[in-house]
Design goal:
Pfam families: Lum_binding. It catalyses: 2 6,7-dimethyl-8-(1-D-ribityl)lumazine + H(+) = 5-amino-6-(D-ribitylamino)uracil + riboflavin. The protein has 212 residues and is mainly beta. It has helices at 32-36, 70-75, 167-172, 190-201, and strands spanning 8-18, 23-29, 46-49, 52-59, 63-68, 86-91, 110-120, 123-129, 143-146, 149-152, 155-157, 160-165, 183-188. The strands form two sheets. A seven-stranded antiparallel sheet has the order 10-9-13-7-8-12-11. It has a six-stranded antiparallel barrel with strand order 1-2-5-4-3-6.
């Protein structure tokens, strides 16, 4: 599990085809502190890479390698990664850690299209178009993870939603280089997923109990 609070901005150093060219190994450069604190990363550790929970299969002083399956590549933006691509990074949550964002599993639900970025007072309003079927899980003032960044939804209009990005967030995440027309990994709020499942199974499940 993660919190959606990005703690380092990594850079793809190598993209290595594996699994007869269907899968991919990514070698990602990062700061030594990211791999050492609060405790040293080990082989098998879970690391969120732009919102995708991946397993470290190799480790160096300032880099790590992860494998992405063909399934992951087809359902996320990772298939478009190239040497030099920037990557939002977060180590997995430990019991007792501060929950600064919201609970994020690292399981991408879909890929959204970046529609626009418009300055709005001291921040920038970013608008995204969701893939079919996800809009019902997104609500104003609810939480959403975009490329692994925990954000608050500020508007919803059909399949389009908007969030505001402050300068600090833009400086420490890939939002600083994101452009309209690009794609972004989306993970809906886990609570929304279970509420939708509950209502689908029993439409009256959330109705108030009848008065006695």
């Amino acid at each position: 599990m993660f919190t959606g609070i990005v703690t380092d901005l990594g850079t793809v150093r190598e993209v290595q085809p594996i699994g007869e060219g269907q899968d991919m190994r990514l070698v990602i450069g990062t700061s030594p502190a990211f791999l050492a604190e609060p405790q040293k990363a080990v082989i098998g550790a879970s690391i969120a890479c732009s919102g995708c929970c991946l397993t470290a299969v190799q480790l160096g002083g300032d880099w790590f390698a992860v494998d992405a399956s063909a399934e992951t590549l087809s359902k996320t933006t990772l298939g478009g990664f190239r040497p030099g691509s920037r990557v939002n990074l977060e180590r997995s949550l430990r019991m007792g850690d501060e929950l600064g964002g919201h609970l994020v599993s690292g399981h991408v639900d879909g890929v959204a299209e970046v529609l626009s970025a418009t300055p709005e007072n001291g921040s920038v309003r970013w608008r995204f178009r969701l893939p079919t079927g996800l809009s019902r899980f997104v609500a104003v003032k609810g939480s959403i993870a975009i490329d692994g960044v925990s954000l608050t939804v500020n508007e919803v209009d059909g399949d389009v939603f908007g969030v505001n990005i402050i300068p600090h967030t833009a400086a420490v995440t890939t939002f600083g280089t994101l452009q309209p027309g690009a794609r972004a990994n989306i993970e809906i709020d886990t609570l929304a997923r279970y509420v939708a499942r509950l209502v689908a199974a029993d439409p009256g499940a959330l109705s108030p109990p009848a008065a006695r």
